[in-house]
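Exercise: predict the fold of this chain.
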Amino acid sequence: MARRHRMVKASPAAVWAVLSDGSRYADWVVGTASSRPVSGEWPKVGAAIEYEVQLGPVHLTNETVVRHCEEGTLLELEAKAGPLGTARISLRLRPWGDHCLVMVDEHPLHGAAGTLHNFGVEAVIQLRHRAMLARLARVCEEEQAHAHGSAGHAGGGARHA
């Protein structure tokens, strides 16, 4: 089971704002080129987003479904990766002073990912989580800094594609 955490220098509300926007999945999930809601109201239980993964010239379309949500503190997802199988991904937010401690926990559920799960796969997931949490931190910290620096300015914040 791959577990990792990161201190994000943004409020839990700022982090939740990013996690709770299904169209922003590609902003912080490593390997994802684009995302869009396909059913339900993200992040309510049962809501789903579709996302594209690009591996060189190959484009794969996968889906992630919300399995459990405690608004502002916990988001549990099931990522469906076709023949690779499915994985449970849990993102828990904890206030830490003015910041947010983000904890991610992932493990395979079905398919090849579960069958082939070993120490090597676990190491790759750890590297992916490190990069994913760094991207999430960057997005949240930049948006919070922009919001504080541009309060009263017209135009709002830039979104990452």
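Check your answer against the key: Residues 152-161 have pLDDT under 50 and may be disordered.
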